Amino acid sequence: MRQSLQASDKKLKIAGSCLLGVFARATEKVVLLAHGAAPKDLKALQEGLKVDAVSLLAAGSAVVGSLISANSFGFVITHHAADEEISILREHGRVARLPSKINAAGNVILANDHAALVHPGLSAKACETVARTLGVKVVRGTIGGLKTVGMAGVATNKGLLVHPRVSAEEIAVLEKLFELPVDVGTVNLGSPLVGSGLLANSKGYFAGMDTSGPELGRIEDSLGFLV
Questions:
Q1: Which CATH number fits domain 11-222: 3.75.10.10, 3.40.50.970, 3.40.50.300, 3.90.1720.10?
Q2: Model's pTM, two decimal places?
Q3: How far apart are CA 165 and CA 69, in angstroms?
Q4: Of 4-8, 32-36, 205-209, which gets the smallest average pLDDT?
């Protein structure tokens, strides 16, 4: 059953799931999500994030948030991506396949328009691809000891929200790299993988339907939505 939304709502489901960051990817310019989303959902995302919605698959899969990392300048997609998928993305920025066996780009790259933290196992070639395509400084690292940094955090051009087990040393790396405040939080009633349940840019955000009021408050504070 599809979830009907108002643009003012801050909680939703995509494909019946609260794992918004698995099924979609948001930047300052677009929100990417799989084909078949309900028109009301597309409209809510466009209005809430103030971006255009782009429907596509990633390597034939609906989990576009897990398989694509993106910012305002470009897209890094799994190396299994089809040429047709690359062509769709090229209409909105630079595109490159991630040259790595670790290929779930959205899961292993945490990026905004200025920097990217990536899985510590990515090769120099892969890091160079991320830097060139997204136009950012790239550093290898972890969040809360997790290598899947794209699911362990969310970065916008205003702030970062990350896994509550993040260490002081990891926070220091993030603050130096992104030059933004870093806070911790959860989504969907306690999930520490905030990147899996949150879509955000500097203009708006949506959290998974199960996210609580206190969790929403932390998101709004961390990402600069409180006036």
A1: 3.75.10.10
A2: 0.94
A3: 23
A4: 4-8
